[in-house]
Write a structure and sequence with these properties.
single chain, alpha+beta, about 170 residues, 4 helices
Amino acid sequence: MVQSVELLLDDLADAEIRRQWQLLADAGIPSSAGKHAETNRPHITIAVARQIWPRIDHALDRLSFRPIPIRLGGVLVFGARHPILVRSVVPSEQLLAWQRRIFSVVSPCPGIPSNVRPDEWTPHITLARRVPPHQLGEAIHAVARDHDFPASVVGIRRWDGDQRREWPVARGG
């Protein structure tokens, strides 16, 4: 499975992304709205590894975090055979600095994919995975009318895909 570090959104942005998940579901597109687990929430994955060791979790807990402003941008499609529909997150110096900081803590861990390395990371929020190619246009149409909007990152969580659990990391400073 996967271990990750993820940025969490403020309540208004969280609700907006959930609304977009529902728009996709209402259009017959398999979206994240169909996942009812309490841990299923809009997020920005900032680091991924096959395993994140306890000593890395301790280092993440020692980070001092304050909310940061972000801007949620347009709709993008990742992949071709099994398209993923995402809402882009406009990179800012502050966001990129946090990604570099988190990556430097997680970098000793095994199984880090190249697309989360600094200067290769594309910040985004997943709207729908494995969109059937014949429904891609309809999926884009369902959410592309929405405008960019400001948001804030208000927390950082660790996700353990093996145990399917989450917990907060970093502390308010």
